[in-house]
Design a protein that fits this description.
- The protein has 334 residues and is α/β, with parallel strands linked by helices.
- 41% of the residues lie in helices and 8% in strands.
- It contains 14 helices and five strands.
- The chain has helices spanning 26-31, 41-49, 64-75, 95-98, 119-137, 148-155, 163-167, 169-181, 194-201, 205-221, 267-276, 289-298, 304-307, 311-323, and strands at 53-57, 106-110, 185-190, 226-233, 249-252.
- The protein has a five-stranded parallel sheet, sandwiched between helices.
- Helix 8 runs parallel beside helix 10.
Length: 334
């Protein structure tokens, strides 16, 4: 099925007339003027908060990855001079934010593909992600400007690296990027919890949380080259496990007032789409993004949260928000 276009949707800032289904790249959506509801207020709210490390918890399909892509496009020096991506969005109304667009070294990575069934395979996958990430920043690193110690640490990040080198990898990359650019780094980690879910389901939780605790501690706690960091996921893992060393972590759950309009669609936006697009008669039952997308695309109502394989996870997220306890996922086959 092809894309749908609605020629009446141009009346709201940030909304194009074509829905690019499954597109999670902010730059692609903006460059092609695809349908996009302005969430750039997230940038200002996050930066103004002053929080060093922020963890955002939301159910699946609530726009976490797209928002992380937006943050990367806004702050990363790789997108310096890309004002075209943000003109017309609310963030561009603030001149002070125009000045910082594209001015930071940003380390952007995702654990979405870390779904291995054993500890060794999961850590090996993370190491391959680290190596791929390093290759992307290699041209930015001026090795002549580094100290002997930094060059020695950088040399440990290679094929066949040990677990300790992998745990220190983000901290090492932060130091060399800061040395090269003269600015502290921003770290964006999407789907931080995917490997932890697999570790729980496949029986290597204790071993893996020991590894990831060291990884998080080096990247987000003892990293003196860190400016800000944001992590996203669908589950809130207890601080007693992966985050036991982090006392600088601001956890934002589905029941938090902070960032409450930055993920998913507000009722106001749903009503706007209803009045400007051919929504069917069941529009009043739509309360989250995938139901809206399905209604626009297929003209049929499917309530994502109540009909998907993630029903237990989403219920657990809400239960965890209320009770403040770690989410325990159902075992496979139960």
């Amino acid at each position: 099925m092809g894309r749908m276009s609605f020629d009446k949707w141009n009346g709201l800032t940030g909304m194009g007339n074509v829905i690019s289904i499954g597109n999670q790249g902010f730059d692609s959506i903006r460059e092609n003027n695809y349908f996009f509801i302005d969430k750039s207020s997230l940038i200002k709210e996050w930066w103004d908060s002053g929080d060093v490390v922020t963890l955002i918890i939301r159910p699946r399909r609530f726009g976490k990855t797209l928002n992380m892509s937006m943050l990367n496009c806004f702050f990363s020096s790789k997108y310096a001079g890309r004002s075209d991506l943000f003109k017309g969005l609310s963030i561009w109304d603030d001149s002070s934010y125009r000045d910082i667009q594209g001015t930071y070294p940003v380390i952007y990575l995702s654990f979405a593909d870390v779904k291995q069934t054993s500890y060794a395979e999961a850590v090996s996958k993370i190491k391959s992600i680290i190596l791929e990430m390093y290759s992307q920043y290699e041209r930015m690193i001026d090795k002549d400007a580094l100290t002997d110690s930094q060059r020695q640490l950088l040399s440990t990040i290679k094929v066949g690296m040990d677990d300790i080198a992998a745990q220190n990898s983000l901290k090492i990359l932060s130091s060399v990027l800061a040395e090269t650019t003269g600015k502290k780094v921003i770290i964006l980690l999407d789907e931080y919890d995917t490997p932890m879910q697999e570790a729980y389901l496949d029986g290597y939780w204790d071993e893996f949380t020991a590894f990831i605790r060291g990884f998080f501690n080096a990247a987000f706690k003892t990293n003196t080259y860190l400016e800000r960091a944001m992590l996203t996921g669908v589950t809130r893992v207890s601080k007693e496990s992966a985050f036991s060393d982090l006392n600088n972590l601001n956890v934002i759950t589905s029941t938090s007032q902070e960032y409450e309009t930055s993920f998913g669609f507000t009722e106001e936006k749903v009503f706007y789409v209803r009045s400007h697009g051919p929504l069917p008669s069941h529009w009043e039952r739509i309360r989250e993004p995938s139901s809206l997308q399905c209604s626009l695309y297929c003209r049929s109502f499917i309530h994502f949260i109540n009909s998907s394989i993630f029903i237990n996870m989403n219920r657990a997220v809400v239960r965890n928000d209320v009770c403040g306890s770690p989410v325990l996922l159902r075992k496979k086959g139960r």
